[in-house]
Design brief:
With 90 residues, the chain is α+β, with helices and mostly antiparallel strands. Helices cover 41% and strands 19% of the residues. It has one domain: 3-Layer(aba) Sandwich (Glutaredoxin), CATH 3.40.30.10. The longest helix is centred in the first third of the chain and has 12 residues. It is globular, with a radius of gyration of 12 Å.
């Protein structure tokens, strides 16, 4: 089974972005970090993918928008993050 594609939209000096990246790294998964700090095009891309949500981080696992750090942490606490990272359905 292949690893899921993980995209995380971040900005500089964002503590929640740092927490989300730390949690993903602790799971041993790689992710594509997209810094939207000074990149209008990438921010617009994030807004479109995140259905208008403007806050960072915005995290996508295999093109499924899971939200930000709070949602990522919630998935981890209930054991659902490992399922998503394994590429199986919940």
């Amino acid at each position: 089974m292949t690893s899921p594609q993980i995209d995380i939209y971040t900005s500089m000096f964002c503590s929640y972005c740092a927490l989300a990246k730390r949690l993903l790294k602790s799971r041993g998964v790689s992710f594509n970090e997209i810094d939207v700090s000074d990149n209008k095009e990438k921010r617009e891309e994030m807004l479109a993918r995140a259905e208008g949500r403007r806050t960072v981080p915005q995290i996508f696992i295999d093109d499924i928008g899971i939200g930000g750090y709070d949602e990522l942490y919630g998935l981890d606490k209930k054991g659902a993050l490992d399922t998503l990272l394994a590429g199986t359905e919940q």
